[in-house]
Amino acid sequence: NADKDLDEQMVFEEFVNYLQDHEKDLRLVFKSLDRRRAGQIYSKEIVESLQDLGVHISQQHAEKILQCMDKNGTMTIDWNEWSNYPLLHPKENNIPEITLYWKHSTLFDVGENLMVPDDFTTEEKLSGIWWRHLVAGGGAGAVSRTFTAPLDRLKVLMQVHGSSSNNMCIMSGLTQMIKEGGMRSLWRGNGMNIVKIAPETAIKFMAYEQIKRLIGSDKETLGILERFVAGSMAGVIAQSTIYPMEVLKTRLALRKTGQYSGISDCAKNIFRREGLGAFYKGFIPNMMGIIPYAGIDLAVYETLKNSWLEKYGTKSTDPGVLVLLGCGTISSTCGQLASYPLALVRTRMQAQAMMEGSPQMTMSGLFKQIIQTEGATGLYRGLAPNFLKVIPAVSISYVVYENLKMSLGVKSR
After folding, report:
1. DSSP labels, 287-340
2. Which of 52, 79, 135, 207 allows an S-S link to 234, with CB 3.0 to 4.6 Å?
């Protein structure tokens, strides 16, 4: 982390910069834990602050941690004790490292921007770190979505055209796409999928911050339930605003060669033939899918995080890249699995007008038709390519995210 020019040597200036950056990070965490603004941290504040981050420890555990840092026997931690402890005991369990490692570990793009946003402290907002994290996350999402776009388009085709009579598999679907439009056709709809990242992320972040204020919490970091409520509401607001882009993405992914010349041509055709209401087809199942996705994703992630900390937290504060990626991948997969039937019905409602002779069915009508003709498994068509893209999407977005953070001047842990 200290070797900024990557020459595998550390000069004195790099060492000083590393210590200064580390001290800034420690001061941010100290201020967030010092809830009374007394310049000292009490064991109760440690328990409450970690609970807000989803890390649950007992009062006795907090007192043991405090005793390790408390050098003058006051049963409180002042700034000097706080800042010196990680330097003198780098491998021991300490609160600063736990919070720093896990805090921004959910900014991995898996193609679904439905997860609960991260919290940023006042200092992070004033220093501009928050927008650097968001920009890095957006850029990482654009790259990972482009790499996994063929699997995403295949998922949409299987959701819309797959049936008991047309049992499309991964290989036959890819072959069909290439045969119809060549290799470039594998990326149809990807342009709109990337374009919608910026407005959706910005709107969700702003809505999340406003909802936090409406909830009435004066805490910089919300508890798990508060994060779920605020995150779900922010997701609803963001999705409501950019939903026409979701419809355009589906229509562009399903288009035949030469059907539309681009995004604007597709939008004009939809408006001229179907009216403004067409841009909100499938809106209700889309909104309904936000709550199970966000709730399960957050709950599973926090459960996995706490399980790791309980088992290994006393040996090491650094969970490592594989643990962070693993927790994010598993939680996202569980969230997608719970909301997938709603996502499938949404996609079919968005695409109904493109299918000649197909009746325009409601959400409940589509559910009944799918279950009657295909059984419950029909609600999970396209799940295989959807799951296949999760691991490469998370891995690619993490690598790009870390590199973009460094380019923007945000130090990696």
Report:
1. HHHHHHHHHHHHHHHHHHHHHHHHHHTTT-S---HHHHHHHHHHHHHHHHHHHH
2. 207
